Amino acid sequence: MLLSLVADELMSNAFSATTMDWSAKQHEYMQRAIEVAEKGRGQVRPNPLVGCILVKDGEVIAEGWHDHLGGLHAEQMAIHDAEEKGHNTNGATAYVTLEPCNHFGRTPPCTEALLWAGISKVVIAHGDPNPIVRGIGISVLENAGIDVETGLLEESAATQMREFLHWCENRRPYVTVKVAVDVNGSVDDLSKDAGRFTSEDCLKEVHRLRKDCCAILVGANTVIRDNPSLTVRLIETEKQPLRIVIDPNNKIKSNSKVLNDGHKTKHLTDDFRGLEAMLDMLGDLEIQRLLVEGGPSTITKFLDQGLVDEFILVQSNITHESPKLSSFDLTGFTKSVETVWGEEKVTIYTR
Ligand SMILES: [Zn+2]
Q1: Cβ(272)–Cβ(248) below 8 Å
Q2: Which of 115, 119, 113 is nearest to 87 (CA)?
Q3: Cis amide bond preceding 46, omega within 30
Q4: What is the Cα Rg of the chain in Å?
Q5: For the chain, what is the mean pLDDT?
Q6: Span 114-143, mean pLDDT?
Q7: pLDDT (0 to 100) of residue 134
Q8: Taking 50 as the threshold, does the pLDDT of residue 216 lie above it?
Q9: What is the mean pLDDT of residues 264-285?
Q10: Distance 80 CA to ligand 1 centre (A)
Q11: Distance from the CA of 116 to the center of ligand 1, in angstroms?
Protein backbone atom coordinates (compact mmCIF):
# COMPACT_ATOMS: atom_id res chain seq x y z
CA MET A 1 0.00 0.00 0.00
CA LEU A 2 2.68 2.42 1.02
CA LEU A 3 4.70 1.52 -2.03
CA SER A 4 1.83 2.19 -4.40
CA LEU A 5 1.14 5.53 -2.72
CA VAL A 6 4.75 6.50 -3.11
CA ALA A 7 4.75 5.35 -6.71
CA ASP A 8 1.59 7.33 -7.52
CA GLU A 9 3.03 10.43 -6.01
CA LEU A 10 6.25 10.00 -7.93
CA MET A 11 4.39 9.45 -11.16
CA SER A 12 2.54 12.69 -10.79
CA ASN A 13 5.58 14.64 -9.67
CA ALA A 14 8.50 13.14 -11.48
CA PHE A 15 8.05 14.99 -14.74
CA SER A 16 5.70 17.77 -13.73
CA ALA A 17 7.55 20.64 -15.26
CA THR A 18 10.08 21.83 -12.77
CA THR A 19 10.94 24.59 -15.21
CA MET A 20 14.69 24.51 -15.15
CA ASP A 21 17.01 27.13 -16.46
CA TRP A 22 19.19 24.90 -18.54
CA SER A 23 22.49 26.35 -19.66
CA ALA A 24 23.75 26.27 -23.24
CA LYS A 25 26.40 23.77 -22.10
CA GLN A 26 23.75 21.48 -20.62
CA HIS A 27 21.82 21.59 -23.89
CA GLU A 28 25.01 20.68 -25.70
CA TYR A 29 25.66 17.71 -23.40
CA MET A 30 22.16 16.31 -23.75
CA GLN A 31 22.23 16.89 -27.50
CA ARG A 32 25.41 14.80 -27.58
CA ALA A 33 23.67 12.06 -25.56
CA ILE A 34 20.83 12.06 -28.11
CA GLU A 35 23.36 11.85 -30.95
CA VAL A 36 25.21 8.87 -29.51
CA ALA A 37 21.90 7.11 -28.86
CA GLU A 38 21.37 7.07 -32.66
CA LYS A 39 24.18 4.53 -32.98
CA GLY A 40 21.83 1.84 -31.77
CA ARG A 41 19.14 2.52 -34.36
CA GLY A 42 17.77 -0.63 -35.93
CA GLN A 43 19.53 -2.87 -33.38
CA VAL A 44 17.94 -2.46 -29.95
CA ARG A 45 14.23 -3.13 -30.39
CA PRO A 46 12.07 -3.80 -28.48
CA ASN A 47 14.20 -1.53 -26.26
CA PRO A 48 14.35 2.21 -26.93
CA LEU A 49 17.37 4.13 -28.19
CA VAL A 50 19.26 5.53 -25.20
CA GLY A 51 22.42 7.62 -24.97
CA CYS A 52 24.49 8.72 -21.97
CA ILE A 53 27.49 10.96 -21.53
CA LEU A 54 29.53 11.64 -18.41
CA VAL A 55 30.79 15.13 -17.68
CA LYS A 56 33.40 16.03 -15.09
CA ASP A 57 34.88 19.47 -14.49
CA GLY A 58 33.20 20.70 -17.65
CA GLU A 59 34.77 17.97 -19.80
CA VAL A 60 32.97 15.10 -21.51
CA ILE A 61 34.92 12.13 -20.13
CA ALA A 62 32.88 9.25 -21.56
CA GLU A 63 29.94 8.31 -23.70
CA GLY A 64 27.78 5.25 -24.07
CA TRP A 65 24.68 4.08 -25.85
CA HIS A 66 22.45 1.05 -25.93
CA ASP A 67 24.01 -0.63 -28.93
CA HIS A 68 22.14 -3.89 -29.44
CA LEU A 69 19.54 -6.01 -27.74
CA GLY A 70 21.17 -7.85 -24.83
CA GLY A 71 24.13 -5.44 -24.85
CA LEU A 72 25.05 -3.00 -22.09
CA HIS A 73 22.68 -0.15 -21.30
CA ALA A 74 23.90 3.33 -22.20
CA GLU A 75 24.81 4.29 -18.60
CA GLN A 76 26.86 1.13 -18.10
CA MET A 77 28.66 1.55 -21.42
CA ALA A 78 29.52 5.15 -20.51
CA ILE A 79 30.93 4.11 -17.11
CA HIS A 80 32.92 1.37 -18.82
CA ASP A 81 34.15 3.87 -21.42
CA ALA A 82 35.36 6.21 -18.65
CA GLU A 83 37.24 3.38 -16.94
CA GLU A 84 38.87 2.35 -20.21
CA LYS A 85 40.04 5.89 -20.80
CA GLY A 86 41.44 6.08 -17.26
CA HIS A 87 38.94 8.63 -15.95
CA ASN A 88 37.62 8.53 -12.40
CA THR A 89 33.83 8.76 -12.53
CA ASN A 90 33.54 9.85 -8.91
CA GLY A 91 31.66 13.15 -8.74
CA ALA A 92 30.78 13.17 -12.46
CA THR A 93 27.41 14.22 -13.89
CA ALA A 94 25.53 11.81 -16.16
CA TYR A 95 23.35 13.15 -19.00
CA VAL A 96 21.02 10.38 -20.07
CA THR A 97 18.19 10.50 -22.60
CA LEU A 98 15.90 8.13 -20.66
CA GLU A 99 15.28 7.60 -16.96
CA PRO A 100 17.76 4.97 -15.71
CA CYS A 101 16.25 1.55 -15.15
CA ASN A 102 15.96 0.09 -11.67
CA HIS A 103 14.93 -3.45 -12.46
CA PHE A 104 16.83 -6.59 -13.30
CA GLY A 105 16.06 -7.18 -16.95
CA ARG A 106 18.63 -8.34 -19.44
CA THR A 107 21.30 -6.48 -17.42
CA PRO A 108 21.60 -5.35 -13.75
CA PRO A 109 19.92 -2.00 -12.98
CA CYS A 110 21.58 1.18 -14.21
CA THR A 111 20.67 2.96 -10.96
CA GLU A 112 23.10 0.64 -9.15
CA ALA A 113 25.80 1.14 -11.77
CA LEU A 114 25.51 4.92 -11.38
CA LEU A 115 25.72 4.62 -7.58
CA TRP A 116 28.76 2.35 -7.69
CA ALA A 117 30.46 4.74 -10.11
CA GLY A 118 30.06 7.60 -7.65
CA ILE A 119 28.02 9.76 -10.04
CA SER A 120 26.85 12.82 -8.09
CA LYS A 121 24.23 14.20 -10.44
CA VAL A 122 21.98 12.74 -13.13
CA VAL A 123 20.23 14.87 -15.77
CA ILE A 124 17.43 13.02 -17.58
CA ALA A 125 15.65 13.99 -20.80
CA HIS A 126 12.61 11.70 -20.69
CA GLY A 127 10.84 9.60 -18.07
CA ASP A 128 10.48 5.88 -18.62
CA PRO A 129 6.95 5.05 -19.86
CA ASN A 130 7.34 1.42 -18.79
CA PRO A 131 5.06 0.98 -15.74
CA ILE A 132 7.62 -1.22 -13.96
CA VAL A 133 10.14 1.59 -14.02
CA ARG A 134 8.22 4.85 -14.00
CA GLY A 135 9.38 7.21 -11.30
CA ILE A 136 11.26 4.48 -9.48
CA GLY A 137 14.66 4.97 -11.07
CA ILE A 138 14.57 8.64 -10.11
CA SER A 139 13.53 8.01 -6.50
CA VAL A 140 16.20 5.35 -5.99
CA LEU A 141 18.84 7.80 -7.18
CA GLU A 142 17.47 10.65 -5.07
CA ASN A 143 17.21 8.47 -1.97
CA ALA A 144 20.87 7.61 -2.42
CA GLY A 145 21.70 11.31 -2.32
CA ILE A 146 22.16 11.86 -6.05
CA ASP A 147 20.95 15.17 -7.43
CA VAL A 148 18.43 14.46 -10.23
CA GLU A 149 17.11 16.92 -12.80
CA THR A 150 14.58 15.98 -15.46
CA GLY A 151 13.08 17.28 -18.70
CA LEU A 152 16.13 18.65 -20.55
CA LEU A 153 15.42 18.26 -24.32
CA GLU A 154 12.51 16.01 -23.40
CA GLU A 155 10.76 16.56 -26.74
CA SER A 156 13.83 15.71 -28.80
CA ALA A 157 14.26 12.51 -26.80
CA ALA A 158 10.56 11.70 -27.27
CA THR A 159 10.93 12.17 -31.03
CA GLN A 160 13.91 9.83 -31.05
CA MET A 161 11.97 7.18 -29.11
CA ARG A 162 8.73 7.86 -30.99
CA GLU A 163 7.86 4.28 -31.94
CA PHE A 164 8.85 2.87 -28.54
CA LEU A 165 6.63 5.41 -26.73
CA HIS A 166 3.76 4.76 -29.15
CA TRP A 167 4.02 1.02 -28.55
CA CYS A 168 4.19 1.45 -24.74
CA GLU A 169 1.02 3.53 -24.86
CA ASN A 170 -1.00 1.61 -27.47
CA ARG A 171 0.53 -1.87 -27.57
CA ARG A 172 0.42 -1.56 -31.34
CA PRO A 173 3.10 -0.66 -33.88
CA TYR A 174 3.57 2.88 -35.18
CA VAL A 175 2.37 2.62 -38.78
CA THR A 176 4.43 4.25 -41.53
CA VAL A 177 3.14 4.19 -45.11
CA LYS A 178 5.58 4.69 -47.97
CA VAL A 179 4.28 5.31 -51.45
CA ALA A 180 6.18 6.27 -54.61
CA VAL A 181 4.51 8.27 -57.37
CA ASP A 182 5.61 9.77 -60.69
CA VAL A 183 5.63 13.48 -61.48
CA ASN A 184 1.85 13.44 -61.96
CA GLY A 185 1.02 11.38 -58.88
CA SER A 186 0.69 8.05 -60.69
CA VAL A 187 1.48 5.08 -58.44
CA ASP A 188 2.18 2.63 -61.21
CA ASP A 189 3.05 2.39 -64.89
CA LEU A 190 0.61 -0.09 -66.38
CA SER A 191 2.75 -0.40 -69.53
CA LYS A 192 5.64 -1.90 -67.54
CA ASP A 193 6.00 -5.12 -65.61
CA ALA A 194 7.47 -4.10 -62.30
CA GLY A 195 6.83 -1.07 -60.17
CA ARG A 196 10.36 0.16 -59.58
CA PHE A 197 10.94 3.66 -60.82
CA THR A 198 13.11 5.35 -58.25
CA SER A 199 16.83 6.21 -58.27
CA GLU A 200 19.48 4.01 -56.68
CA ASP A 201 20.18 6.53 -53.90
CA CYS A 202 16.48 6.74 -53.16
CA LEU A 203 16.31 2.96 -52.90
CA LYS A 204 19.13 3.09 -50.37
CA GLU A 205 17.03 5.43 -48.26
CA VAL A 206 14.08 3.06 -48.59
CA HIS A 207 16.30 0.24 -47.33
CA ARG A 208 17.41 2.43 -44.41
CA LEU A 209 13.72 2.97 -43.64
CA ARG A 210 13.08 -0.79 -43.88
CA LYS A 211 15.96 -1.44 -41.49
CA ASP A 212 14.32 0.87 -38.95
CA CYS A 213 11.01 -0.98 -39.21
CA CYS A 214 10.40 -4.29 -37.47
CA ALA A 215 7.94 -5.44 -40.12
CA ILE A 216 6.98 -4.64 -43.72
CA LEU A 217 3.48 -5.21 -45.01
CA VAL A 218 2.05 -5.63 -48.50
CA GLY A 219 -1.16 -7.00 -49.95
CA ALA A 220 -1.40 -10.11 -52.12
CA ASN A 221 -1.61 -8.11 -55.36
CA THR A 222 1.81 -6.54 -54.80
CA VAL A 223 3.35 -9.99 -54.35
CA ILE A 224 1.55 -11.33 -57.44
CA ARG A 225 2.53 -8.37 -59.61
CA ASP A 226 6.09 -7.57 -58.43
CA ASN A 227 7.26 -10.67 -56.51
CA PRO A 228 9.30 -8.40 -54.19
CA SER A 229 11.69 -9.73 -51.56
CA LEU A 230 11.07 -6.78 -49.17
CA THR A 231 14.44 -7.30 -47.51
CA VAL A 232 17.20 -4.88 -46.54
CA ARG A 233 19.99 -5.35 -49.08
CA LEU A 234 21.52 -1.99 -50.01
CA ILE A 235 22.75 -1.19 -46.51
CA GLU A 236 24.24 -3.42 -43.84
CA THR A 237 21.94 -5.10 -41.40
CA GLU A 238 22.15 -8.02 -39.02
CA LYS A 239 18.47 -8.68 -39.00
CA GLN A 240 15.76 -8.66 -41.66
CA PRO A 241 12.31 -7.24 -40.95
CA LEU A 242 9.37 -9.60 -40.70
CA ARG A 243 7.37 -9.60 -43.97
CA ILE A 244 3.60 -9.58 -43.71
CA VAL A 245 1.40 -10.46 -46.67
CA ILE A 246 -2.35 -9.92 -46.38
CA ASP A 247 -3.83 -12.61 -48.59
CA PRO A 248 -7.24 -13.74 -47.25
CA ASN A 249 -8.02 -15.71 -50.42
CA ASN A 250 -4.61 -17.40 -50.52
CA LYS A 251 -3.82 -16.11 -53.99
CA ILE A 252 -0.05 -15.66 -54.01
CA LYS A 253 2.10 -18.29 -55.72
CA SER A 254 3.83 -20.82 -53.51
CA ASN A 255 7.13 -20.00 -55.26
CA SER A 256 6.93 -16.28 -54.35
CA LYS A 257 10.22 -14.89 -53.02
CA VAL A 258 8.74 -13.93 -49.65
CA LEU A 259 7.82 -17.57 -49.03
CA ASN A 260 11.07 -19.11 -50.19
CA ASP A 261 14.09 -16.91 -49.42
CA GLY A 262 14.64 -18.17 -45.87
CA HIS A 263 13.64 -14.91 -44.14
CA LYS A 264 10.54 -14.72 -41.98
CA THR A 265 7.13 -14.01 -43.47
CA LYS A 266 3.68 -13.98 -41.93
CA HIS A 267 1.34 -15.02 -44.70
CA LEU A 268 -2.12 -14.03 -43.44
CA THR A 269 -4.70 -16.10 -45.28
CA ASP A 270 -8.01 -17.23 -43.76
CA ASP A 271 -6.62 -16.31 -40.32
CA PHE A 272 -6.75 -12.61 -41.28
CA ARG A 273 -9.32 -10.91 -39.01
CA GLY A 274 -8.96 -7.31 -40.14
CA LEU A 275 -6.30 -4.64 -39.77
CA GLU A 276 -7.00 -3.71 -36.14
CA ALA A 277 -6.75 -7.29 -34.92
CA MET A 278 -3.59 -7.69 -36.98
CA LEU A 279 -2.02 -4.58 -35.37
CA ASP A 280 -2.88 -5.97 -31.92
CA MET A 281 -1.20 -9.23 -32.88
CA LEU A 282 1.90 -7.38 -34.12
CA GLY A 283 1.96 -5.34 -30.91
CA ASP A 284 1.99 -8.56 -28.92
CA LEU A 285 4.99 -9.65 -30.99
CA GLU A 286 6.72 -6.41 -29.85
CA ILE A 287 6.67 -5.00 -33.40
CA GLN A 288 7.04 -1.26 -32.73
CA ARG A 289 7.14 0.12 -36.26
CA LEU A 290 5.31 -1.28 -39.26
CA LEU A 291 6.09 -0.15 -42.79
CA VAL A 292 3.21 -0.46 -45.25
CA GLU A 293 4.66 -0.75 -48.77
CA GLY A 294 1.53 -2.11 -50.35
CA GLY A 295 -0.36 -0.88 -53.35
CA PRO A 296 -3.03 1.86 -53.29
CA SER A 297 -5.88 -0.40 -52.16
CA THR A 298 -3.98 -1.66 -49.10
CA ILE A 299 -2.86 1.86 -48.21
CA THR A 300 -6.38 3.22 -48.63
CA LYS A 301 -7.73 0.60 -46.21
CA PHE A 302 -5.23 1.68 -43.56
CA LEU A 303 -6.08 5.36 -44.13
CA ASP A 304 -9.84 4.77 -44.11
CA GLN A 305 -9.61 3.05 -40.74
CA GLY A 306 -7.46 5.82 -39.29
CA LEU A 307 -4.56 3.45 -38.68
CA VAL A 308 -1.74 5.44 -40.32
CA ASP A 309 0.62 7.46 -38.13
CA GLU A 310 3.06 8.62 -40.80
CA PHE A 311 2.75 8.92 -44.58
CA ILE A 312 5.88 9.17 -46.70
CA LEU A 313 5.30 10.34 -50.26
CA VAL A 314 8.21 9.77 -52.64
CA GLN A 315 7.83 11.70 -55.89
CA SER A 316 10.13 11.00 -58.83
CA ASN A 317 10.59 13.28 -61.82
CA ILE A 318 9.74 10.62 -64.40
CA THR A 319 6.39 10.30 -66.16
CA HIS A 320 4.55 7.01 -66.45
CA GLU A 321 3.44 6.05 -69.95
CA SER A 322 0.19 4.44 -68.76
CA PRO A 323 -0.40 6.14 -65.43
CA LYS A 324 -2.45 4.67 -62.65
CA LEU A 325 -3.52 7.74 -60.76
CA SER A 326 -4.39 7.47 -57.14
CA SER A 327 -5.31 9.97 -54.52
CA PHE A 328 -4.91 9.44 -50.82
CA ASP A 329 -7.03 11.24 -48.28
CA LEU A 330 -4.61 12.80 -45.81
CA THR A 331 -7.21 14.69 -43.78
CA GLY A 332 -5.87 15.13 -40.26
CA PHE A 333 -2.22 14.92 -41.34
CA THR A 334 0.24 17.78 -41.44
CA LYS A 335 3.35 18.08 -43.55
CA SER A 336 6.24 17.61 -41.14
CA VAL A 337 9.32 17.12 -43.34
CA GLU A 338 10.29 17.93 -46.92
CA THR A 339 13.52 16.36 -48.07
CA VAL A 340 15.26 14.64 -50.96
CA TRP A 341 16.18 10.95 -51.33
CA GLY A 342 18.56 10.60 -54.27
CA GLU A 343 16.74 12.21 -57.20
CA GLU A 344 13.34 12.01 -55.56
CA LYS A 345 11.41 14.61 -53.62
CA VAL A 346 10.13 13.25 -50.31
CA THR A 347 7.32 14.69 -48.21
CA ILE A 348 6.54 13.24 -44.81
CA TYR A 349 3.11 13.76 -43.28
CA THR A 350 2.32 12.93 -39.67
CA ARG A 351 -0.74 13.19 -37.49
ZN1 LIG B 1 19.42 0.42 -17.68
Answers
A1: yes
A2: 119
A3: yes
A4: 23
A5: 89
A6: 89
A7: 61
A8: yes
A9: 96
A10: 14
A11: 14
Ligand 1 centre to CA of 100 (Å) is: 5
Would you state the pLDDT for residue 314? 93
- Scanning the chain, the segments in alpha helix (DSSP H) are 2-14, 24-37, 74-84, 110-116, 136-143, 154-160, 162-170, 200-211, 220-226, 257-260, 275-284, 296-304
Helix (H) or strand (E) holding 266: strand 265-268
Residue 263 C-alpha from the chain's centroid: 21
Average pLDDT of the residues in 116-126: 97
pLDDT at 196: 58
pLDDT digits (tens, 9 = 90+) for 89-111: 999 999 999 999 987 766 679 99
SS3 (DSSP) at 261: coil
What type of residue is 49?
L
Q: What is the pLDDT of residues 325-340, one digit of tens each?
A: 778 999 999 999 999 9
Total residues belonging to the chain: 351
Is 84 a residue of the active site? no
* Ligand 1: centre distance to CA 250 (Å): 44
Catalytic residue selected from 63, 75, 205, 293: 75
Instruction: Render 67-106 in DSSP notation, one character per residue.
Output: -STTS--HHHHHHHHHHHTT---TT-EEEEEEPPP-S-SS
